Amino acid sequence: PAAPTRREGRVPSRAFVVRAATGERIEVPADGAYHVVGRSVTSELTVGGNGNISRRHAELAVLADGLHVRDAGSANGSFVGNRRLAAGTEAAVGPGESFRLADEVFRYEPA
User: Fold this and answer.
1) pLDDT at 100
2) Which of 18, 56, 58, 106 is most buried when burial is the number of CB atoms within 10 A of its CB?
3) To the nearest 10°, the Cα dihedral for 50, 54, 56, 62?
4) Residue 43: is it exposed, middle or buried by C-beta count within 10 angstroms (0-12/13-18/19+)?
5) What's the alpha-carbon Rg for the chain, to the nearest Å?
6) 8-36 as b/e: b if 16+ CB within 10 A
7) pTM of the model
8) How far apart are CA 29 and CA 38, in angstroms?
9) Do 109 and 15 form a contact (C-beta atoms < 8 A)?
10) What are the 10-residue block averages of pLDDT along the chain, 111 residues in total?
11) What is d(CA 9, CA 11) in angstroms, rounded to the nearest whole number?
């Protein structure tokens, strides 16, 4: 897949995704690299307690234009807006906006 287009702007020093159902805050390293999120304890960002989320569900990267969500071939999909991302494709989520992994909603909160 093509690298995301980086727009001018400041990358936040810290960033979180907040699990809507529980309020759990998961820190996403703000280093410009992609980090695997999934239910497996071997994922860099672990989301437990939901069997609908794949072991390696998606990849998240904090860039200057927002949080990039890239589907990793998940069984139940990654969604930005109402659009399901095809495996290997990505979309940016802005501050305060939500995305979905399977049936779980998350909100992006840069710090």
Assistant:
1) 98
2) 58
3) -60
4) buried
5) 13
6) eeeebeebbbebeeeeeeeebebeeebbb
7) 0.89
8) 15
9) yes
10) 50 91 96 96 96 98 96 98 96 97 97 87
11) 7
